[in-house]
Structures are given as structure tokens and as C-alpha cells.
Amino acid sequence: MELLVINAAQVRQLLPMAACMDEMASALRALGRGEMQNPLRTFTWLPDRRGLLAAMPAIAPEVMGIKVISVMPDNMATEYESHMGAVMLFETTHGQPLALIDAGEITTIRTAAVSGVATRLLAREDANDLAILGTGAQAVSHLEAMLVARPIKRVRVWSRHADNRAKFATHVQTRFGVTVELTETAQQAVTGADIICTTTSSTQPILKGEWLSAGAHLNVVGASTAQAREVDTATMLKASLFADRRESVLNEAGDFLIPKQEGVIDNSHIRGELGEIMLGQIKGRQSPTEITLFKSLGLAVEDLVSAHYIYQQAIQHKMGTAVEFGSTRH
Ligand code: NDP
């Protein structure tokens, strides 16, 4: 038996942002129709809580798989990415392993692609003024996704360190030909913005509700545990909340759970899931002045569907490295 190994550079080639957005839209619709299994992920923390190992299994009709990924927030100051690991893809007839694919790059692309889907569904049609908080891997991929989702005319970016901001500006100028305005404060970045993406490793609010303009759409991406949040209670109160999956928000989203513990919102604050909007079961934005907020937690089905797409493309384009793996019955 052979296993196809696909590295990060190959993932970038085989999973373009626009294609990934289409794949993520169909994955979220399939999840909404109940065709996918996506148990809650497990986090196992290092003893000193500097980082963790996450395991994210999922099953679709034709394939199943698991993402295993380390999350090390302090890596921003090193040569290493903060998310590293692999997605292992299996077929569902005999359970044969098919591929081992770089998960850092899948995570970077698919997370932004889902925010792109959310932005297409929820942002105003004329939204063109973008703010990004954070200058790491997710900030770069979110810029790419927002450029696909809406006709962006202005981009402002903030993170705490000026050198990170400068590196981001140079990188996206080279990669996308986009000039960004770098700001000293988060408030300067978001004032008057139509679309705001929060993509930091912060565990405390970096975005305040009082800074938001009527009609803004927010993709709130960076915090993925019940104890951490990027947006304050006022932001959550002002916004109509949409989820990748309700169950994940109820268990994993400090952005939602902390205001809930404060007693200012309850579970009915979640308007619904992106899949439900696409299936016509709930309405998305209801007025040009409504503030919409997509809370992204990241789902195993997003990794699985991305991995399956990459695998099929790799077979078609004869890419990846096949290695002998496992054995058949004698
Ligand atoms: P990176 O390490 O590449 O970037 C982290 C960014 O956060 C940097 O811009 C850093 O810039 C900023 N930052 C770090 N600490 C703070 C702080 N205390 N306050 C404000 N800004 C801070 O990480 P990624 O881009 O890969 O991931 C960003 C976040 O998104 C992580 O928390 C990650 O777990 C999460 N994530 C969520 C996913 C989802 O599906 N929802 C999927 C993947 C990641 P500076 O130091 O200059 O402030």
C-alpha cells in the first residue's frame, strides 16, 4: 500500500484560496444537512501550558481523517510557525490511509476561507474598507480571503510590535501587490471599517464595541478556548452572532462564553450557523446598519474536506511523494 505525503509548499499550490472557499461552503452545507460527523476536538496541554496538542477527527461519506497539530503561541518570535502538524486522510471502504498532508498550511488557508464564506454571506455588498488585527499567518491569509470575498479598497493593519507590522506590510505587498496602512493602535485600524478580522493570539479583548461602526462585519478568529477572547462584552452585545457550529461556540468560544457568564447574553444570542444561512434555514444580515459577527472556532470537517480536495488534486497533477506504508493481508 502507498501513502501520499504532501508538504506545505504543495498544499499552497494545490489549495488556492478561491477554490478553498467553495470547498468550505459545501463542507458547511453538508455539516448543516447532517452528512458529516465532527466531534468536539481534544486539547492536551503541555505541563507549563506554553502550548498544546490538538486532535480533530471527522468523518464524511467518502473519507475520514484526523488533524493532529501543535499550537505554540510563542513561536511568533522564532523561525517556527505557531501551528504545525499533519492531516491524515483515510478512505471509508476498508479504512486505508491515503495521505499525510501538512496541517499548518491547511489550517492557515481553510480558516481564512471560512471567514471568506462568512464575509460573502454577511458583510454588506459594498463593504470595501478592511481592518485586520494581528500580523501573523492568519492575518496574511485573511487578507487574501477578504480580497476574494469583497472589492477591498483600503486595508489597515495593527499588531503590538512595529517590526511584525512592517514585515507583514512587505510580505503582502510582494505576495498580493496590496499596500496596507499600519496603525499604532487597534482603534485606529478599526474606526470606520466595514470588515474587521481579529487574528491575534491574545487571550484578552483587543477590540472594543465602542469603536465599531454601524453595518460592520466581524470575523473573530484568534481565540479558540472557553477562557480566551479577543472581543469585549460590548462587541458581543452589539453584534448579531453567527457560528461555524453552535456546539463549538457553546463549548469553546470565550468571546461568547465570558459575556454569557457575566449574565448579559444567553444561548439565544447565537443567531445560527453559516451552513443554516446557505441552506435557507435562517436569515443572514437583515439591514445595512446591523453589525454581524462570525465567531470562527475551526472545525475538523474543514480540514478533512480541504485534505480530500488536496489529495484529489495531487493525484490529478502527479504531485506529492508516495511511500510504502502498512501492509495487505497475506
Ligand atoms: P501567529 O503566531 O502567526 O500570529 C499571532 C499574532 O497575534 C501576531 O500578529 C502577534 O503579533 C499577535 N499577538 C500575539 N499575542 C498578542 C496579544 N497578547 N495581544 C495582541 N496581539 C497579540 O498565529 P496565527 O496567525 O497562526 O494564529 C493567530 C490566532 O488564531 C491564534 O490564537 C490561533 O490559535 C488562532 N487560530 C484560529 C483558528 C480558527 O479556526 N479559528 C485556526 C488557526 C489559528 P504582535 O506580537 O505584534 O502583537
Topology:
Layout: E1 2-6, H1 8-14, H2 17-32, E2 42-45, E3 52-59, E4 63-71, E5 83-91, E6 97-102, H3 103-122, E7 129-133, H4 137-149, E8 154-158, H5 162-176, E9 181-182, H6 186-190, E10 195-198, E11 217-220, H7 233-238, E12 240-243, H8 246-252, H9 254-261, E13 270-273, H10 274-278, E14 292-295, H11 300-316, E15 321-324
Helix pairs in contact: 1-3, 2-3, 2-11, 3-4, 3-11, 4-5
Provide key terms for this protein.
330 residues; alpha/beta; eight-stranded parallel sheet; seven-stranded mixed sheet; 15 strands; globular; binds NADPH dihydro-nicotinamide-adenine-dinucleotide phosphate
Strand content: 15-25%
Number of strands: 15
**Main pleated-sheet profile:** 8 strands, parallel
Instruction: Kindly provide the radius of gyration, computed on alpha-carbon positions and rounded to a whole number of angstroms.
Output: 19 Å
Q: Uncertain regions: pLDDT < 50 for 5+ in a row?
A: none
Q: Record the strand order, biggest sheet.
A: 9-8-7-10-11-14-12-13
**Estimated structural class:** alpha/beta
Anisotropy-based shape = globular
Task: Encode the helix/strand succession as letters.
Answer: EHHEEEEEHEHEHEHEEHEHHEHEHE
First-to-last CA distance: 13 Å
Which range best describes the helical content: under 10%, 10-25%, 25-40%, 40-55%, 55-70% or over 70%? 25-40%
Tally of helical runs: 11
Query: What ions, cofactors and ligands are bound?
Result: NADPH dihydro-nicotinamide-adenine-dinucleotide phosphate
Mean pLDDT: 97
